Amino acid sequence: MDYAVGEYAIEPWLAHDACDAATFEECYWVLHRAYVPAEVAVTACRLSFD
């Protein structure tokens, strides 16, 4: 989630919640529901689950 926080100034608590998600899809929706752009959410979650 360093990508989301460092590159896009996503709040650390939000990145932490997304990182704690059990699946890629849950991670994505945690971020996207908070109005994080879809492309940023996909990339952040992809990096988190690789």
Give the helix/strand layout:
Blueprint: H1 2-8, H2 12-19, H3 24-33, H4 38-49
Helix pairs in contact: 1-4, 2-3, 3-4
Number of helices: 4
- The overall average pLDDT, rounded, is 93
Low-confidence stretches: none
SS strand fraction: under 5%
Distance between the termini: 12 Å
How many strand elements?
Answer: 0
Biggest beta sheet attributes: none
Shape: globular
Helix content: over 70%
Rounded radius of gyration (Å): 9 Å
Helix-strand makeup class: mainly alpha
List keywords for this structure.
50 residues, single chain, mainly alpha, 74% helix, globular
Question: How would you characterize the overall build of this protein?
Answer:
It is globular, with a radius of gyration of 9 Å. The protein has helices at 2-8, 12-19, 24-33, 38-49. 74% of the residues lie in helices and 0% in strands. The mean pLDDT is 93. The longest helix is centred in the C-terminal third of the chain and has 12 residues, at 38-49. The chain starts with a helix and ends with a helix. It is mostly helical. It is built from four helices and no strands.
